[in-house]
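queue> holo job accepted (N-carbamoyl-L-aspartate)
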Amino acid sequence: MKHLLAVNDLGAEGIEEVLRVTDSFVEVSSRAIPKVPALRGKTVVSLFYESSTRTRLSFETAARRLSADIMTFTAPTSAIAKGESLRDTVETIQAMGIDAVVVRHGSAGVPQLIASWIDASVVNAGDGWHEHPTQALLDCYTIRQRRGSLDALRIAVVGDVKHSRVARSDVAAFALLGADVTLVAPPTLLPPSLEGWPVTVSHDLDAVLPKVDVVYVLRLQNERMKEALLPSLREYTASYGLTRRRADLLADDALVMHPGPMNRGVEIAADVAALENSVITTQVANGVAVRMAVLYLLLGSGQDLAG
Ligand code: NCD
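queue> job finished
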């Protein structure tokens, strides 16, 4: 594997491989000194053109735990509208001698473009509405950790599917691992066409919740809504929010997930996020080990994993 741009590039086998290697790095992360020399001498650049807290810190922590050097580049979204300046930036960074670029950008396809320009490995950390493959990998890892396997699991993905790269990557990965995915959203928050999506669709969250093993709540992406897609936040919460009352409809062992950052009280109630079956902080913790696995598989093959 040279780049990680989209979930479908990995296929089911590629996902399984990342999850297997992640197991080793979860073990490394539990050590008193959670660090291995696997990527000593390698340089990883994080190139973030869009805001991020957990994803950027998670990748940087992962790189450090593998003993890689890390360079950080953050840019205000507005300054990079021109393709030429993006290319200049990337070529400048490349000239410094780097091994991997972790990129987040507001436009779909930018990681792919960068991969065509440079020799280093490229990891997509979120491109527009398109994909966020490491989020899907950490979500699969978290579900597998709790439920053993995703095969035949019933997963509801709820909310703002239209603007969500997390939904696109998650649906692809969940389906590749054999899960049965239902999207639950108002028609205005679904993509205009679901052709090729391996999903069923519902507009009735109350009817879906009792039947699922996992409810995956998406963030309402207000910053991506150019038009009025919702009557009001209150009405959204009334129909599609995971309120405390609705959480009681879930089976006892059903998992509650969210990629963060949460709009508490909008798509998910604060007390639901704190329930015992909520694995939202486990998702974040697993994110570091998953990203260690991805960086290791891209840059470190042939080296002693446990170091
Ligand atoms: C997501 C993102 O930015 O794609 N956050 C994340 O990486 N965990 C989801 C979101 O912003 O809603």
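queue> The first strand starts at residue 43 and ends at 48.
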